[in-house]
Design a protein that fits this description.
CATH superfamily of the largest domain: P-loop containing nucleotide triphosphate hydrolases
Distance between the termini: 78 Å
Number of domains: 5
Structural class: alpha/beta
Strand content: 5-15%
Oligomer: single chain
Number of strands: 22
């Protein structure tokens, strides 16, 4: 597996591996686990590893913490007889540095090399006001080295008890003789005997390690070789009392910090008894602080940094980045001292230490200092061999795919973390790696894996629910563990939200969009696995189609440009009438830009056919088609909604038993999925197909217009805007455009210079090259406005021979119907002039004032105009009604009915006093019975057209 991280960072900044070089044993992996566990007995016997045995090497890799400085000062002062505490108890958590501190005291007291060879000691002694520290005798009592029933053997002398071994180490045979009787009897020597022993061999140091492990094996009132429980406790009390009386003697004893570390009931009893005895005279040693741990780990694992300038540039870049990011980062990063923490911890980021010392040390058995050293040594070696390019070693850098690192982190956790890491967090088969392969922008910086590693380090320990802020990490803390100078925080935010949607073991206590939402990994699946299983059940089913239908139907509600919106209809379900209708094509009828697609073929079928019959008003249809590249996501999101809904329903119905958190999670996920679905549907159904022209082969030409999905408006409003901006639907029309359209489409010809409004409106509904008006009223208003001017057209109620009935030009129009004629402007002007000339032919007149008769004036007519005949008075007929009936062939019904309307009904309508009623009767029989779809379509159209009788038998 390749762990190399190609980080996008400023080129002037060097990665940690070019500045901080690990010690050779770390790089070679030659260290043993035991190397990180100091053994005071091995040091006394000269058998320890050189880093512990050699005083100069030991102090060279040891950072003298504030607690250790105070303790060593106390020891030096005590051995020099200049004060100091006589008894010091070292009580910290397991792995907290107790034995390491004892080794430091051993080397100070035994003085196997000059003080000047031990880094830091000479300065410490000087600050303590001492010129020198006398060499001292040191006795080491290691409770794990011998058991109560196992005597020590020194030459020919068998030593049975702790006090016997103490006396022998301080004074050999001479010292042992002082306590020989007590050793043989298994009873504690008195305070006076021990005082004599300490005075005779002072200056001296008594180092007592793992006492609880030894005394916890003894039983009350049951003697063993090493004495009884009571005698050993009495010895400790006597020793602490005696050492107070010897000014240049000191006792250091280590005790476990908690009962959990002790293990057995006897051990707990021993711990309590020893705490009581030491508590009477002890001075407590303060354990290592987190900040001091930075230097402890750095010294043990890395060589001294030589390029301090390069290190400082990196640290300043981090501090500057946190200042620039501001509120999206944790509050402490905005303080100046956080920059100092970065420098002190370099090359390991402070967040690594914070999570290990604050979170992981709460795990029983995780050693505070030793455990961190062991873990980080393995992490550093793996990153080094993988050529890791991070600027610092961050939580996001932890190579959890490496077996050694993963085992070191999981062996103290509850079972079940291995599959979580492999499936959700790190490794070639993890979902994080799959996401990075799909999204290049994530893959460039391993954004998904970095987020997941950070979350694991901050959420895997089991007792984090007691945090005041709650379990898990919020967005700010996750960014702190991932983000490096030169990178975008938005990239990691996006990666986290994508992971929250797909990982099975990642949990959240709120919506992914909320900054305070906390995230954590758990060994229990987060219901996403159950959801994924259920989602597959809905694939391609009727419930999926119904859900898509429902969300799309609601999506375009509010589009005011259309009289009807039809979602996934059959062609016969879309009426062939004058209403403007929007047809949403089936999800299978996808659109791909600039390619023949199922969407275009489907739209052409709607334009050609109304069920089994030809469609006559094709120009009243427009279409919405799904984008081929987005339909997959929509189907997936619909199935996700259905899956979560089924889980919630099963929980509420008692068919699925889960805990309260998972119940809340299911409801939250369902709500989030439902809220996200409309936007996904809008991204998918975003192509408006507008018919514009039939080609020679009879197929329509459709133009596609994308509907904006990012302008903040609803889909209906965005659809209306596309129609208006591209003039696909005309809601207000100028008489100028109407005139130009009539001229362009040759409605006005030399032999037929007028057109009925009825024909014009019918053609506008039929032919795709005609303008698409929103309603019939748009045309009516345009004619009303145009009729008041002589620039656009003249009008007439009808035409008989060469005479226009009800002719008007530049006069308001009122009281007209679809039979109104629109007359070509030149023709209308010529007719108006002709009519005016006819009216100027006037006969003799009588002067109304009585002035006599004036001669008549005759105006000669142009040679081209025939003389005007006096109006013929209509003859009065005795016929007062007309009834007619005719049989019409079904095949040519439209043409014949049109002819009847023009040649019979229109002629009868010329008489303004005529009362005309036309009734159409249709009688159709079917030898084999009428088809269901035809009966449905005929009944629907008959209702729309106002048939008073529409019965089937």
């Amino acid at each position: 597996m390749r762990d190399t991280l190609e980080v996008i960072v400023p080129t002037s900044l060097k990665p940690w591996r070019e500045i901080a070089i690990p010690h050779s044993d770390v790089l070679k992996g030659s260290f043993q686990q035991a190397e990180f566990a100091a053994d005071i007995t091995a040091v006394r016997l000269g058998k320890a590893d050189p880093i512990y045995q050699d005083a100069a090497a030991f102090y060279g890799r040891t950072f003298i913490t504030e607690g250790m400085r105070l303790l060593l000062t106390q020891v030096a002062q005590r051995l020099a007889g200049r004060g100091g505490e006589p008894v010091i108890q070292l009580q910290t958590a397991f792995g907290g540095g107790k034995t390491h501190t004892m080794v430091a005291v051993w080397h100070l007291a035994t003085r196997r090399c000059p003080l000047s060879d031990m880094p830091g000691l000479a300065t410490l002694i000087e600050q303590a006001g001492l010129m020198e520290v006398p060499e001292a005798r040191v006795a080491v009592i290691d409770g794990t080295n011998h058991g109560p029933g196992q005597p020590w053997v020194q030459g020919k002398q068998a030593i049975r008890t702790l006090w016997g071994e103490l006396a022998w180490q301080l004074g050999g045979a001479e010292g042992f003789q002082l306590v020989a009787e007590s050793d043989a009897a298994g009873t504690s020597p008195g305070k006076e005997v021990l005082q004599t022993l300490l005075e005779r061999f002072a200056p001296c140091v008594v180092l007592m390690d793992e006492l609880v492990a030894y005394i916890g094996q003894l039983e009350e009132s049951r003697p063993m070789t090493g004495g009884t429980f009571e005698s050993n406790v009495a010895f400790i009390q006597a020793l602490t009392e005696a050492v107070k009386l010897v000014p240049n003697a000191i006792v250091l004893a280590s005790l476990p910090e908690s009962e959990v570390e002790v293990g057995s009931d006897r051990g707990v009893l021993a711990l309590k008894a020893l705490e009581k005895r030491f508590g009477r005279v002890q001075a407590l040693w303060r354990p290592v602080g987190t900040e001091e741990s930075f230097e402890i780990v750095r010294r043990r694992l890395f060589e001294p940094i030589r390029d301090e300038e390069a290190r400082d540039k990196v640290c300043k870049a981090y501090a500057r980045m946190y200042a620039d990011e501001g509120a999206v980062m944790p509050g402490e990063t905005q303080e100046a001292r956080y920059g100092d923490r970065i420098r002190d911890a370099y090359p390991i980021h402070p967040e690594v230490f914070d999570r290990l010392y604050e979170d992981w040390t709460t795990i029983d058995g995780f050693q505070r200092t030793r455990g961190v050293l062991k873990l980080m040594a393995k992490v550093i070696r793996r990153l080094w061999t993988a050529n890791n390019g991070d600027l610092m070693i961050m939580p996001a850098s932890l190579p959890l795919a490496d077996n050694d690192v993963r085992n070191e982190l999981t062996y103290l956790l509850a079972p079940g973390w291995e599959p979580v890491i492999e499936s959700d967090i790190d490794g070639d088969r993890a979902d994080t790696a799959e996401l990075e392969a799909q999204e290049v922008r994530f893959g460039q910086v391993q954004a998904a894996r970095r987020v997941a590693r950070t979350l694991f380090l901050g959420s895997a320990p089991p007792d984090l629910g007691s945090r005041s802020a709650g379990k898990g990490l919020d967005m700010a803390r996750i960014l702190l563990g991932c983000l490096q100078p030169g990178q975008s925080s938005a990239l990691y935010v996006d990666a986290l939200r994508r992971l929250a949607d797909r990982l099975h073991f990642l949990n959240a206590n709120g919506e992914p969009t909320e900054s305070k939402t906390r995230y954590w990994f758990d060994t229990r699946a987060n219901l996403r696995r159950e959801m994924e299983d259920r989602r597959r059940r809905f694939e391609g089913g009727t419930e999926e189609r119904r859900k898509i239908d429902d969300v799309v139907r609601r999506l375009f509600t509010g589009a005011s440009s259309f009289d009807g919106i039809h979602v996934f209809p059959m062609s016969g379900d879309v009426p062939d009438d004058s209403a403007l209708r929007l047809v949403v094509l089936l999800p299978e009828h996808l659109y791909v830009r600039e390619h023949p697609t199922p969407a275009l073929e489907a739209a052409q079928e709607y334009l050609r056919s109304h069920g089994g019959q030809p469609r006559h008003r094709a120009n009243r249809l427009m279409f919405i088609a799904a984008d081929a590249g987005s339909i997959g996501r929509l189907r997936s999101e619909v199935r996700r909604v259905l899956a979560w809904k089924s889980i919630v329903e099963d929980v509420e119905g008692g068919r699925l038993n889960i805990d309260q958190f998972q119940k809340d999670q299911a409801k939250t996920e369902l709500r989030a999925a439902e809220n996200a679905l409309p936007s996904v549907a809008r991204e998918c159904f975003r192509w408006l197909l507008c018919p514009v022209q039939f080609d020679a082969a009879g197929k329509s030409s459709l133009e596609a217009y994308p509907i904006s999905t990012s302008d903040g408006s609803s889909a209906g409003v965005a659809l209306d805007r596309v129609c208006a901006e591209n003039e696909l639907i005309i809601g207000a029309w100028s008489p100028l455009f109407l005139r130009d359209e009539l001229l362009k489409t040759f409605y006005w010809k030399a032999d037929k210079p007028s057109v009925p409004v009825r024909q014009l409106w019918e053609d506008m509904q039929r032919y795709l090259y005609m303008p698409r008006l929103r309603t019939r009223e748009v045309l009516t208003e345009t004619i009303r406005k145009g009729g008041a001017s002589e620039d656009f057209f003249g009008t007439a109620l009808g035409k008989v021979d060469d005479r226009y009935e009800g002719f008007s030009l530049s006069q308001p129009i009122s009281g007209w119907d679809d039979a109104l004629l629109l007359i070509e402007p030149a023709e209308a002007m010529a007719y108006k002039e002709r009519r005016d000339r006819e009216s100027k032919v006037v006969g003799p007149t009588t002067d109304p004032t009585g002035g006599g008769n004036e001669p008549s004036v005759t105006v000669p007519l142009p040679p081209s105009m025939p003389p005007i005949q006096p109006p013929v008075q209509p003859s009065v007929s005795t016929h007062r009604s007309f009834r007619g009936a005719v049989s019409v062939r079904a095949a040519g019904a439209k043409a014949e009915l049109n002819q009847i309307a023009q040649e019979i009904i229109a002629l009868l309508a010329r008489d303004p006093h005529a009362d005309i009623r036309v009734t159409l009767e249709i009688d159709a029989t079917f030898a084999k019975g009428a088809a269901d779809d035809m009966r449905r379509n005929v009944s629907e159209n008959a209702t729309t057209l106002g048939f008073t009788t529409r019965e089937w038998e």
